[in-house]
């Protein structure tokens, strides 16, 4: 085995401690990169998974060492001890990973200090793993005993990339018998102190289990013992082998970048717990879980299933394949997969789960039919939308997560499509925007007084809203343009949030239909929820979204929208008051620093582990704005009217476009919407 190799290091002393270079050390062949700078550009989420990533890397290397020493007997003879001392004390916490593998012999030591060794690449490593520890800990110590041709030998040293001599050898024997390697990690960086204080033993155990899930499912594992202080060590290999039992396995085909790829999937049925509480899909590469897991609850129609004994369980799907190995980033934490490919994989896996869990899906469909039947008792006219189908036949063709409201809306659409006289009246009303509101309300009242019939009214309403937006950016009779506040209020009511404003009460679809369905929207409000104070950053619009992963939040997405007065042309580079790019970056940073926002109902929403951030600047592309965008390195290669840039330092993606583009895109979307509703 060769341990995780990263960019080369220069070593001026070896175990002989006399200042002479050890045999085989070719200083001229080594290049010392600026690893602190490389690590500075490497982002690691401050969460339990990020904190334990160096431990995961050490465990992976231990497995490689054991495999090299024991070959096909590795799972039977290999042993690894992961020990945590003073788990919740940042000043005293110490983590060690000790194995009985081949150890850091001369061959492996050369690999240790050689960039991207052939062995590690053949094992699907990227040679960056051991350096990631410096994102969490400031002290990393190695001690190893290994066999040579003559006898046993040892190496004991501190590894520190911040020093001129990155490897500092010292006397001393490893404190474990026989061959193997021990990696010690301590002196965590200040950024991790708060998290360490709240760590639980169960967090640690569950994270190790979920990270190495592929091993538990389709590879052998050595005995891994987990110990806290002087407590009795727990065999977590046995524990997770009992939990992660293969439920089904097979292959699926999906298109990735135009090429059909065969992927292997494994379905695991496990009890629902605090950590594992919803169906999910995990991507595996290099024998570990990478990227962002996908919550499958929406597709399957339930967060969990219930068996014959009324026990709750979830399905965890793991997908892997050669196509993933070539799309793995250097730190082996994420995959470069097109969103369309991810969507296809999710759909294919959910189909496999539904085939396997037919009884569970039948229960969901039966429940949907019962709830829809109750809704149709209140709105019997909507039965026309069934077109002769039974309720069971109808719901069988619809998404599993739909509730009565979605079914009622769908049936309303179906009914409208088949009512020619109604369509004619709606179309006539649409041709007279000046009096559309009165005509549509009168029409709706004569058709059906129920609120479910409001959808047709909404179609025409959207058309009028676009016309109002178009008018706001032009001169009125007094040669004045509308202000950004008018545009803002048209899209979403100012000084409010989505606590009390429902979908049909705002017009976020003007910007992007997807924004309208995010969990939380805040408009022109401070982070603390009170009146604006000195130093407060107030966003025009702020959107919050999160991703559920194995029952925990994998990361928060924050998006803001900044409106500028139509035709404004007095921007200047730099200061936030005159530079909208600087303004949105400052505002996002302030929001993240605030740690959350107080909603209008008084509840506090926490912005934990912000992983993704983005912004829209909606302002006419006048000469001064284009000049600023260019100075910030914005580009418009795909559409001359839409400028974009990704800021690496702050991980912020910003789009800038004018009101003409906003109106044009909204018209196109509404035309498609009208086509579906009215066959226009």
From TrEMBL:
The scientific name of the source species is Rhodovulum bhavnagarense
- Output this protein's name: Histidine kinase/DNA gyrase B/HSP90-like ATPase
Q: Does the keyword Kinase apply?
A: yes
UniProt keyword Cell membrane present: no
Q: Which UniProt keywords apply?
A: Kinase, Transferase
What superkingdom does the record give?
Bacteria
Pfam families reported in the protein's UniProt record: HATPase_c (PF02518)
Write one Gene Ontology MF term.
kinase activity
Ranges for domain Histidine kinase/HSP90-like ATPase: 55-150
